[in-house]
Amino acid sequence: MTSLITCVVHNNQQHQLRASTEKLANGIQMGINYRLYAIERVETFSGEAVQLVKLRNPLGPGGEYIGAWARGGLEWDEIPAMERERLAVRNMAEGEFWISYSDFVKTFTHLEVVHLDAETSRDEPSLHNKHTWQMKLYQGSWRRGVTAGGCRNNQETFHINPQLHLILSEMEEVIVSLNQHSIMELKVIGFTAYTLPKNSTESINKQFFKKKKSLVNSEYTNSRQVSHRCQLEQGGYLLVPTTFEPTQETSFTLRVYSSKPLKLKLLDTPPSLMKSAIVKAPPLEGKGFSQYEAVFLQLADEHRTVNAFELQELLEACLPNDYIKSCACMEVCRQVVLTMDSSGSGRLKFNDFKDLMCSLKYWQAAFKNHTKEKTGILKAERLRDALLEVGFQLNTDVLSILILRYMRKDGTLRFGDFVSAILHLSDAFGIFESKDPLQNGTIKLSLAEKNFFTEIGVGLAGFGISFLFLGILLFFDKGLLAIGNLLFISGLACVIGPRRTLSFFFQWHKIKASASFLGGVLVVLMGWPIVGMIIETYGFVLLFSGFLPVAISFLRRVPILGTILNMPGLSRILNKIAGDTNRTTV
Question: Is the pTM of this model over 0.70?
Answer without folding.
Answer: no
